[in-house]
Write a structure and sequence with these properties.
The complex is a heterodimer of chains A (about 525) and B (about 260). Chain A has about 525 residues and is mainly α. In chain B, the strands form two sheets. Chain B has a six-stranded mixed beta sheet with strand order 6-7-8-3-9-10. Chain B has a four-stranded antiparallel beta sheet with strand order 2-1-4-5, covered by helices on one side. In chain B, helix 3 packs across helix 4, helix 3 runs parallel beside helix 5 and helix 5 runs parallel beside helix 6. Classes of the chains: A mainly alpha (about 525), B alpha/beta (about 260).
C-alpha cells in the first residue's frame, strides 16, 4: 500500500510564474496587443469623460473669479435702484448672520431688534425647504393640496383652518415625500404669518432708500455712468442711505461701471450712419447690418484698427465742417450723404475717449463676452451629479466597459483554444489546475496594466483637447493636477479590474482542460 | 489526503518480476446523450518494471483510451489502475499532477515543446514543477541533453531545430525527474527513417541503461523489433499479448541514399 506524499510538490514561486507569463506574452505579442488595445479604449473613454468634467469644474471656478467684478456691478446697480423681490429676500434672509454686512443693512432699514431678525432668519430657512418641495410638484398635485395658491401665497392660504385641514387630508395622495412632519409645518405657517409685517418693514425701508438714491443722487443720470465717477463723497451718501458698501467694493464697481459706460459709448458710435457705412466697407461686409458691437470691438483691438477709427472720425468731422457748416456747400454732395452726416454729427463730435482707452475697452469687452459664453457652456456640464457625470454618461460608460469585457473574454478564449495542446502538455509535466489558472490571470493582469496606462494617458490627452475645443485656451491653463491624478488612477485601476474579471472565465476553461487533449493517437 | 486501496499481493504473477503498472477489470464508458460507447471492456494486464512494450491496434480500438488510463491522464469508469501500487482512481487532481510530474514521462508525436523557451528551459520545466532549484535544474538539464546528444544546442529554440532534435529534446524533458515509466505516443510518427533511428537508439539506451519502463504506441516496425512484449488491442479488449520472441517482425531498409 503506497501513499503519495503531496507535500513534496512545491508550488512554483511567484517570480518564476511571472517570468513564464512574460515570456509567453512576448511570444504572442500580437494577440496580447489586441487585448491591450481593447482595454486602452475602454479606459480612455472613461478617462476622457472624467478629465473633461474635472476640467470643466475648474474652468467654472476660474471664470467665476474673473467675472466677479461684473457680477458685483450688476448686484449693486440692482440693489441701489430696484426693489428687492420677495423670493430674493427669503434667500438673503436664509443666508445672513449677525455681523454680516447684509444683516446690518436689513436691520438698519427695518429697525427690527436682534430677536425679530433671528425669527425672520429661521422662518426664511424653513421656507426655502418648503419652497423646494412645492416647486417640484405637478399642477394636479398642487391643486389637490393647496387649491389655486402658488408660490408664497401658499403659506398665507394655509393660514385658514379649513385650507390646512384639506392640505393634511390630501397630502398622502401626493407622491413626493413631504419634508418633516405636519406639526412642524403647522407651526411654520403660524410663524410665517406672524413675521410678514417685519418682512414688509424691511422691504419698505429698502424701497425708501432706493427712492432717495434716485432722487438725490442719480437724477437722470444712468447708474453706470454715475458709479463710474465714484469717489468718497458718493460712498458717504450711499452709506447714509443704509447701504453697507465697502470702499474696496466701490472701487471694483466703479472701475467696472467705467468700462461698461465706455463700451456703451463706443458701441453707440455704430448709430452714426457715416461711420457705420465706412466700417462696413472697411471690414468688407455685405451690408451694414452685419456690423455689430462684436465686430467693432474685434476691429478696435489692434493698433491699426484704432488708428483707422480715429482717422475716420477726423475725416467725417472734416466733411461735416466742409459741407454742412459752410452755407451752400451741401449742394455739392448727394442728399443721402447729407442726411447721414447730419445724423452722425452729434455722436461724432461728442466722442471723447482717447485711443488707449478705446483699445483697452474693446479688449475687455470682448473678453467679457467670451467669458460669458464659456460660462454658459460650462454651466451645462459642470456640477452634474457624480464626478460631473449625468446618468446618461454613466450608463454609456458602464455599457462600454461591458462591451469591452465581452471582447476581452472572446480574445482570451481564442488564446486558450490556440494553446490547448500547450496547456495539456504543461499538465502532463506536472502543472496543477491552479497553476494554469494563475498563469492566465497574471497574463491578463499584465495586459490590464499596459492597457490601463495607455488608456489613461490617451484619455487625458483627448479630454484636454476636447475641453480646449469647447472652452478655448482657458481650459488648458486650468487643468487641475490633483483631480486629474485621481481620475487617472481610478480609470487605470478600473481597467486592470476589467481585464482581470474578463479573464476569469477563460482561465477556468483553461484550468479544467483534460491532459488527454495532448495525446492524439488516432 | 489519499486513501490508498488495500491491494492484495498479485496472486497470479506469472514471473517474479516487479510490476509497475497493473490494471484490474479496467472499463471505460463514454456517454454522449443517450448513446453509451464502451471504449474499454475490461482489461487485465500487468506491465513489468524495466520492460519495453509496444501497444498496437486499429483506430477506434480503445488503444488511446488505454494509454490515457495507464498514463494517469484519465480515470476509469470501473475497475482499477495501479501505478506503482497506487490506485489512480483515488487520487485528487493535485496528487495526479504530482504523479505525472515525477513518475511518468511523456513523449508525443508532435513533440509538444514550449515554443518560446530554449531547449534547456524546455527540459527543466518539469523540474521547476518538482521544486528543484534553478542551479541544480540547469545541471541536470545539461546532463540530460548530453545524454541525448544535444548539449551544444541547449540555447536553440524549438523552431530552430529539426524534428529529430525536437523529439530528442522531448525525450530529455521526459526524463527530467527520473520517472519510472515513459509513455510514448507514436514517437517516430512525424520523422523520416533516418532521424527515426536516432530516436530508437535513444529509447533503447534509456530502457537498458536506466531500467525505465517504455510503453510505446506505434506502427514503426523497428520499434516493435526492439520491444520485449507486444500488445494488440481490438474492440476495447486485449486481443493478443505476446513476447517478442513469439512474433515475426520484418524490417527492411531502403537501399540507396536517404534524404535529410
Amino acid at each position: 500500500m503506497k501513499v503519495i506524499d503531496v507535500n513534496k510538490q512545491v508550488r512554483l514561486s511567484l517570480l518564476k510564474t511571472v517570468e513564464l507569463v512574460l515570456s509567453g506574452v512576448k511570444f504572442r505579442l500580437f494577440r496580447a496587443a489586441v487585448t491591450v488595445v481593447i482595454i486602452a479604449l475602454a479606459v480612455a473613454f472613461l478617462m476622457t469623460m472624467l478629465s473633461e468634467s474635472v476640467i470643466a469644474r475648474n474652468v467654472a471656478v476660474a471664470i467665476n473669479k474673473q467675472t466677479g467684478p461684473r457680477r458685483l456691478l450688476v448686484y449693486w446697480v440692482s440693489r441701489l435702484t430696484q426693489p428687492i423681490q420677495p423670493a430674493e429676500l427669503t434667500k438673503e434672509l436664509a443666508s445672513v448672520a449677525p455681523g454680516d454686512e447684509r444683516w446690518a443693512e436689513l436691520q438698519g432699514w427695518s429697525k427690527l431688534d436682534d430677536e425679530k431678525m433671528h425669527a425672520l432668519v429661521d422662518v426664511a430657512r424653513q421656507q426655502l425647504i418648503y419652497d423646494a418641495y412645492f416647486d417640484g410638484l405637478a399642477d394636479g398635485d398642487l391643486r389637490a393640496i393647496v387649491g389655486r395658491a402658488r408660490g408664497e401665497e401658499i403659506y398665507s392660504y394655509l393660514a385658514s383652518p379649513e385650507a390646512l385641514e384639506q392640505f393634511k387630508r390630501q397630502l398622502p395622495s401626493v407622491g413626493k415625500e413631504f419634508p418633516g412632519g405636519t406639526d412642524t409645518f403647522e407651526s411654520f405657517i403660524e410663524d410665517w404669518g406672524r413675521t410678514q409685517d417685519d418682512r414688509a418693514a424691511i422691504l419698505a425701508g429698502h424701497s425708501e432708500a432706493t427712492r432717495l438714491f434716485h432722487q438725490n443722487v442719480l437724477g437722470n443720470v444712468p447708474p453706470h455712468l454715475y458709479l463710474a465717477g465714484a469717489d468718497e463723497s458718493l460712498l458717504e451718501t450711499i452709506t447714509a442711505l443704509g447701504f453697507h458698501l465697502t470702499a474696496d467694493e466701490l472701487a471694483i464697481v466703479s472701475r467696472q461701471a467705467g468700462l461698461t459706460a465706455d463700451a456703451d459709448q463706443i458701441s453707440s458710435m455704430l448709430k452714426a450712419p457715416s461711420l457705420r457705412n465706412a466700417l462696413t466697407s472697411k471690414l468688407k461686409k455685405e451690408s451694414a447690418t452685419d456690423v455689430g458691437p462684436q465686430e467693432l470691438f474685434s476691429f478696435l483691438q489692434s493698433d491699426s484698427g484704432t488708428k483707422w477709427f480715429f482717422d475716420e472720425l477726423g475725416r467725417i468731422k472734416d466733411k461735416i465742417r466742409d459741407y454742412l457748416e459752410v452755407a451752400g456747400a451741401s449742394k455739392e454732395i448727394p442728399e443721402e450723404e447729407v442726411a447721414q452726416l447730419e445724423a452722425s454729427r452729434a455722436l461724432v463730435f461728442g466722442f471723447d475717449l482717447p485711443a488707449e482707452t478705446v483699445k483697452e475697452v474693446a479688449s475687455a469687452s470682448l473678453r467679457g463676452r467670451h467669458l460669458a459664453e464659456v460660462e454658459a457652456k460650462v454651466a451645462q456640464t459642470a456640477g452634474l451629479g457624480w464626478f460631473g457625470f449625468s446618468s446618461k454618461t454613466l450608463a454609456l460608460i458602464i455599457v462600454s466597459f461591458l462591451v469591452c469585457m465581452v471582447g476581452i473574454v472572446n480574445a482570451m478564449l481564442m488564446s486558450v483554444a490556440e494553446r490547448f495542446r500547450e496547456i495539456a502538455t504543461m499538465k502532463c509535466l506536472g502543472a496543477t489546475d491552479g497553476f494554469i489558472m494563475v498563469n492566465f490571470m497574471l497574463e491578463s493582469c499584465v495586459q490590464g496594466l499596459a492597457g490601463g496606462v495607455v488608456g489613461a494617458v490617451l484619455g487625458l490627452i483627448l479630454g484636454v483637447i476636447r475641453s480646449w475645443w469647447m472652452y478655448g485656451w482657458i481650459a488648458i491653463t486650468n487643468v487641475p493636477l490633483l483631480p486629474v491624478l485621481a481620475s487617472s488612477s481610478i480609470s487605470f485601476v478600473l481597467g486592470v479590474i476589467l481585464s482581470v474579471l474578463a479573464a476569469v472565465y477563460p482561465a477556468l476553461v483553461a484550468a479544467r482542460l483534460a491532459p488527454m487533449e495532448a495525446m492524439r493517437i488516432e | 489526503m489519499t486513501k490508498a486501496a488495500q491491494t492484495p499481493q498479485p496472486a497470479d504473477n506469472e514471473t517474479d518480476r516487479p510490476v509497475i503498472i497493473r490494471t484490474v477489470g479496467l472499463q471505460k464508458l463514454y456517454q454522449m446523450g443517450e448513446i453509451i460507447t464502451k471504449a474499454l471492456r475490461g482489461i487485465d494486464v500487468e506491465l513489468y518494471r524495466g520492460e519495453f512494450i509496444c501497444v498496437m491496434g486499429p483506430s477506434g480500438s480503445g488503444k488511446s483510451t488505454f494509454f490515457n488510463m495507464v498514463g494517469g491522464l484519465d480515470s476509469p469508469t470501473s475497475g482499477r489502475v495501479f501505478i506503482d501500487e497506487v490506485d489512480v482512481a483515488q487520487l485528487s487532481a493535485v496528487e495526479l499532477a504530482f504523479l505525472r510530474c515525477r513518475k511518468i514521462g511523456y513523449i508525443f508525436q508532435t513533440y509538444n515543446l514550449v515554443p518560446y523557451m530554449t531547449c534547456l528551459e524546455n527540459v527543466t520545466v518539469p523540474m521547476a514543477f518538482a521544486g528543484v532549484s534553478s542551479d541544480e535544474a540547469r545541471n541536470r538539464g545539461m546532463n540530460l541533453l548530453k545524454l541525448v546528444g544535444l548539449a551544444d544546442r541547449w540555447f536553440h529554440k524549438p523552431i530552430e531545430m529539426s524534428g529529430g532534435q525536437q523529439q530528442r529534446t522531448a525525450i530529455a524533458r521526459s526524463m527530467a525527474n527520473n520517472p519510472s515509466v515513459l509513455l510514448c505516443d507514436e514517437p517516430t510518427g512525424n520523422l523520416d527513417l533516418k532521424t527515426g533511428a536516432e530516436i530508437h537508439d535513444c529509447l533503447m539506451r534509456l530502457n537498458k541503461e536506466r531500467n525505465v519502463t517504455v510503453i510505446c504506441a506505434t506502427h514503426d516496425h523497428r520499434l516493435i523489433n526492439m520491444a520485449n512484449r507486444i500488445m494488440w488491442i481490438r474492440d476495447g479488449q486485449i486481443e493478443r499479448l505476446a513476447d517478442r520472441s513469439d512474433v515475426t517482425v520484418e524490417t527492411g531498409a531502403i537501399e540507396g541514399e536517404e534524404n535529410e
